[in-house]
Amino acid sequence: MASANSWTLEIPSPVAAPRLFRAAVIDWHTLAPKVASHVVTSAHPVEGDGGVGSVRQFNFTSFMPFSFMKERLDFLDVDKCECKNTLVEGGGLGVAIETAASHIKVEPAANGGSVVKVESTYKLLPGMDEKDEEAKAKEALTAIFKGAEAYLVANPDAYN
After folding, report:
1. Which of 20, 44, 71, 104 has a beta carbon 3.0–4.6 Å from 15's, enabling a disulfide?
2. Whole-angstrom distance, CA of residue 78 vs CA of residue 106
3. How far is it, in rounded angstroms, from Cα 44 to Cα 22?
């Protein structure tokens, strides 16, 4: 069995932490099809009320190497702009990865913006290229936060 690997990523943003967290994490299932329609065709909660234990599904265009993914919310602290989630179905699970979980925290920055800090822990299936999978995951996460950031900058009254 493969051992667990992890990587970290920091994404600076001019948007305040609470707004970015609400848009890019809490409400991403609503916002993604609007701001990233070239990647996300639709998204919706599958079970739960949005709190811990809830599962939501994202459906993707052919831009992604898989058609959907489901993630479970394992921890949420809205006041601290922090959450943890686990991939439970789709998203390369069983194809490239055995397990995957992320810890996301959006922290205030001195300039009034924020810094998104992501730590991902995963197990790849045998034969998968660790550097390639890590690069793809970081690129996708950066795109999510930059997409939400662009929306928030263009819509200063959204998610206040």
Report:
1. 20
2. 10
3. 16
Rounded CA-CA distance 119/44 in Å is: 24
* Per-10-residue mean pLDDT, the chain, length 160: 82 98 95 91 93 95 89 97 97 91 97 97 90 87 94 96
Domains present along the chain, CATH in parentheses: 5-154 (3.30.530.20)
Cα–Cα distance for residue pair 97/95, rounded to 1 Å: 6
Is pTM beyond 0.70? Reply is yes
Q: Are 80 and 64 in contact (CB under 8 A)?
A: no
